[in-house]
Amino acid sequence: MAKNRAPFPGKELADWAVDTSLAAKEKLAKAAVAVKEGHEQAVLKAQEFKRLRELRELRPVFQEDLCAETYAFPPMICIAEPDEKHARSPLCENAVGFLRSEQDLQILQIYPDAADKFGLTFFPATENAAFFVEDSQPNFYVNLDNYFEYQKKARIDELESIAFCLGAKHVEARLIESIRSEELTKAKAGGNGGKAVKADVSHETAQAKASRWEVALSSDFDGSDNPKRPVLHYFQNEASVQNLISMRMDSEHKILSKTYSWDFSHSSKIKEATALKIESALKKMKIGIHTSVVKQARTEERTMLKYTIDF
After folding, report:
1. Better pLDDT: 271 or 24
2. pTM of the predicted model, to two decimals?
């Protein structure tokens, strides 16, 4: 009888090799899938990072953003067409404008075809123009070309209204702009055929000041002994105005006449520091205006308001 032979060792080795090969291939396939998925994830993360970076740079705003009850419009708004960068970006599709910052000054640029959709009033309404908020009226923006003249008239009108409500018989407001002697010297030199002007003046003389006077208000009323408390916007934080109202409303010790002097810029919304930011932003946005905001702000800072009221 033949003896049972042991299994051929070569077959076991071959089976083991096949199994090992299949396992290796499976591991390689899984590794390849993992590498591919990792690459895809990396690509997606890179794309998302790029998208977020572009959003931070472009800062588009959409109609639903500006229509939200919680949205607070910034103090400065420009009405102008989108620049090339915003017009070409897919991220800005259907946008109605975009935000930008000049230091801490927030600016909203609204495209012309969307400017009338958000309950804002622009005075006067023009395209490719810059506007600054007028706080005395809600959502009211004044063109920067007209802003300082508008504010000046509004403040003078409020002073007249104060006098009328308090029962005054006469009220007068004068604006006194200080002019340094250096400016006068330049003006004289300009009218002297361009000849040089001697500069051997003392420091005190160089700092001397002349003035420009303007009677901005002079009104007469019938007068009344039954004063009414006026509504204040521009002078609500002026302590002397509040004191004037209190004295006039006092039925026992009514004031008869008073003269006040204030820095005109105290009631201004645009000081020089803000004006510098505005002009810097307008230059970058390539939006031109016909006046110098900085020059106007400096003029107001050199101007005193003299207010006389008689009862």
Report:
1. 271
2. 0.74
Instruction: Say whether both 180 and 244 belong to one domain.
Output: yes
Q: Is the peptide bond before 90 cis (omega within 30 degrees of 0)?
A: no
Is the Cα dihedral 206, 207, 210, 214 positive or negative? Answer: positive
Place of tokens 């010297």: 185
> Given 143, 174, 197, which residue is the final one in a domain?
143
Burial 216-238 (b: 16+ CB within 10 A, else e): bbeeebeeeeebeebebebbeeb
Question: In the beta sheet, which residues pair with residue 275?
Answer: none
Contact 239, 258 (CB under 8 A): no
Q: Say which residues have a Cβ less than 8 Å from residue 272's Cβ, sequence separation at least 6.
A: 294, 297, 298, 301
Paired sense of beta strands 129-133 and 209-220, if any: unpaired
In a domain, 40, yes or no: no
**278 and 154, same domain (yes or no):** yes
Containing structural domain, residue 212: 147-310
Give the chain's end-to-end CA distance (angstroms, integer): 146
214 and 248 share a domain?
yes
Q: Please say which residue of 115, 143, 171 terminates a domain.
A: 143
Can you spell out the DSSP letters for 71-103?
----SEEEE----HHHHH-GGGTT--EEEEEET
Closest alpha carbon to 248 in 240, 277, 19: 240
Task: Give me the number of domains the chain comprises.
Answer: 2
Query: pLDDT tens digits for 58-97?
Result: 899 999 999 998 899 999 999 999 989 999 999 999 999 9
pLDDT by residue (tens digit) across 146-164? 999 999 999 999 999 999 9
